[in-house]
From TrEMBL:
Name of the protein: Dia3p
Any GO molecular function: acid phosphatase activity
Pfam families in alphabetical order: His_Phos_2
Homology family: Belongs to the histidine acid phosphatase family.
InterPro entries: Acid_Pase_AS, His_Pase_clade-2, His_PPase_superfam
Organism: Saccharomyces cerevisiae x Saccharomyces kudriavzevii (strain VIN7) (Yeast)
A single GO cellular-component term on record: fungal-type cell wall
Origin organism lineage: Eukaryota, Fungi, Dikarya, Ascomycota, Saccharomycotina
Keywords recorded for this protein, A-Z: Hydrolase, Signal
Keyword Hydrolase tagged: yes
Signal peptide: 1-20
Length: 267
């Protein structure tokens, strides 16, 4: 007998950031979607890309076996920066936007009417959607990503679901995760009767959660700090030095250079 298909779209940590390339000129249009090669170098701050090495368990069905059940666990997709990241981003943006000289060198693209990619603070923490993107041509919205994921899921497992049209999708109460689950469910189409079930991320949830950060007493965000600290951060100073040399008086700090990775222009 085919067991019900159960999905969980979950987990509270961030995958990738909102990047939107403002529409200014023909040259900008040509750049849209052309800078994927940068993504692996942004320290996780990039739209989703498939990790370029072998990863995970192959999804081919082993010989002699029959697939009877699929459980999918997903994350939220591209989002605007979090509130805490935004503090650093705004700080560097204020320095850059209050600079009175002509931008030189790597920052010279700002002379062409760059539009800051966070038009409104209410967008912080939110998923990127077609509606809240500055540029409707943004190819990296979470909305499109979740919907594409659903279509791929249907292509792969649709047959298995032919007798299973009523099922729940579980999500956490984080808005961006809820939104991802909803876009995924929507894109599965009218043939399914899906109930979206919300499980809280609050500490009071105990083990009844999909994102066990607050509710897991042993969770330690700093567990691997010693490993992180063993890597040099000189490259940040080099970046700020280079930008400051090109733009006298800009006075970017190492921290500012780090904030540039968090979503300030990648174009
Ligand atoms: C200039 O910087 C200040 C904070 O120091 C900020 O309040 C202001 O909005 C900035 N101006 C612009 C145009 O970004
Ligand atoms: C769905 O039900 C039909 C009729 O009982 C059956 O022939 C078919 O194999 C079922 N599909 C799956 C994927 O189990
Ligand atoms: C859809 O699912 C709900 C439970 O979430 C159920 O109450 C309802 O009867 C279902 N509707 C159909 C048409 O199967
Ligand atoms: C979250 O958990 C705390 C501590 O367990 C509890 O006091 C609070 O009422 C919970 N909040 C919600 C919205 O459930
Ligand atoms: C930083 O710049 C110095 C001086 O140019 C150079 O020797 C060093 O290799 C650079 N470090 C990194 C990480 O790029
Ligand atoms: C940049 O730093 C120099 C030296 O510390 C200082 O004289 C100058 O006022 C600063 N410029 C700005 C725009 O903060």
């Amino acid at each position: 007998m085919v067991k019900p298909v159960i999905f969980a779209i979950c987990l509270g940590v961030l995958l990738s950031k909102a990047l939107s390339i403002p529409l200014r000129s023909f040259a900008d249009i040509e750049l849209i979607g052309s800078q994927k090669s940068l993504f692996p170098f942004l320290g996780g701050s990039a739209p989703y890309f498939s990790f370029p090495a072998n990863y995970g368990i192959p999804t081919d069905i082993p010989e002699g076996c029959r697939l009877t059940q699929v459980q999918m666990i997903g994350r939220h997709g591209e989002r605007y920066p979090t509130r805490s990241e935004a503090k650093d981003i705004f700080e560097v943006w204020y320095k850059i936007s209050n600079y009175t000289g002509k931008y030189e060198g790597s920052l010279s693209f700002l002379n062409n009417g760059y539009e800051f990619f966070i038009p409104d603070e209410s967008l912080l923490e939110m998923e990127t959607t077609l509606q809240n993107s500055i540029d409707v041509l943004n190819p990296y919205t979470e909305e499109m990503n979740a919907k594409r994921h659903a279509r791929e899921f249907l292509a792969k497992y649709g047959k298995l679901m032919e007798n299973c049209t009523n099922f729940p999708i579980f999500t956490t109460n984080s808005k961006r995760i809820y939104d991802t689950a909803q876009y995924f469910a929507e894109a599965l189409g009218d043939g399914f009767n899906i109930s979206l079930q919300t499980l809280s991320e609050n500490s009071s949830s105990g083990a009844n959660t999909l994102a066990a950060k607050s509710s897991c007493p042993n969770w330690n965000s700093n567990a691997n700090n010693d490993i992180l600290m063993s890597y040099s951060r000189d490259y940040l100073e080099n970046i700020s030095d280079r930008l400051n040399d090109e733009n006298k008086g800009l006075n970017l700090s190492r921290k500012d250079a780090a904030a540039l990775f968090l979503g300030v222009p990648s174009s």
